[in-house]
Amino acid sequence: MKSSKTFLYQKVFADIKSKIASGEYGAGHLLPSEREIGELYQVDRTTVRKALQLLCEEHLVTKLPGKGTCVSHAPSAPQIPNFLLTNHPRLLLQPPTTPQPPNPSLLP
């Protein structure tokens, strides 16, 4: 029998992702520092960095050297390929929105 083990960085990642999705951390919002996140979740900075790296890989946050980590945009619903949307009225949906870039005032 295979056990399903959840690592601490996955829990931190999932919680921050949930906060981004709920709007608690909106687009352009700076996340707390790595130290503050570590204290909040009672984990070390290596764990926080791994969670933040996963968020970066999903394009949910952008690391800004000397500034911190900025929320890029909220996660969106899975995209439906365009060929599925054509010629079928029940599948015609609003076009996907374009992710917003980070707040320019936060860029170095």
Question: Helices and strands in order, then pairings?
Answer:
Layout: H1 8-22, H2 34-41, H3 45-57, E1 61-64, E2 68-71, H4 82-85
Helix pairs in contact: 1-3, 2-3
Largest sheet: 2 strands, antiparallel
Q: Roughly how much helix do the residues carry, as a percent range?
A: 25-40%
Which ranges are low-confidence, i.e. pLDDT below 50, for 5 or more consecutive residues? Answer: none
Dominant shape: globular
Strand order of the largest sheet: 1-2
Look at the helices and sheets and give the structural class: mainly alpha
Output the number of helix runs: 4
**CATH architecture level-2 label:** Orthogonal Bundle
Mean pLDDT across every amino acid position: 80
SSE string, helix = H, strand = E?
A: HHHEEH
Q: How large is the share of residues in beta strands? A: 5-15%
| Named CATH topology | Arc Repressor Mutant, subunit A
Annotated CATH homologous superfamily: Winged helix-like DNA-binding domain superfamily/Winged helix DNA-binding domain
What is the count of distinct domains? 1
Through-space gap between termini:
51 Å
Rg over CA atoms, rounded to whole Å, is: 17 Å
Count the strands? 2
Query: What is the CATH first-level class name?
Result: Mainly Alpha
